Amino acid sequence: MPSIVYTVREGDTLWNIAKAYGTTVNDIARYNGIVETDVIYPGQRLRIFVPEESTPKWYVVRPGDTLTKIAEKFGTTVQRLMWLNDISDPNLIYPRQRLRIRP
What we know:
The chain is α+β, with helices and mostly antiparallel strands. It is 30% helix and 16% strand. It is built from 4 helices and 4 strands. The chain has helices at residues 14-21, 25-32, 67-73, 78-85, and strands at 3-7, 45-49, 58-60, 98-100. The strands form 2 sheets. The chain has a two-stranded antiparallel sheet with strand order 1-2. Strands 3-4 form a two-stranded antiparallel sheet. The longest helix has 8 residues, at 14-21. The two termini are 15 Å apart. Residues 4-48, 57-101 form the LysM domain.
């Protein structure tokens, strides 16, 4: 099952995150060693295992993105993103560029 790394934002709850990624609060808590499911912090990074079909097929590059950050976010590799998008230089991506995340 693919996984992503999610960075908690102000106002997030495990319930909202779980709902957005098609998983459960208990699964996120278990994967991340969280005992108190009502206590998460902005900036905290959570590994979330998601069903393949809930991983988006496309991603639009934002300012500051790198292929490494995008690969980590979607639980894939830089090499796979380069292959899927016919990219020869991993340092040459641009804001608003549309990248394929999965076939």
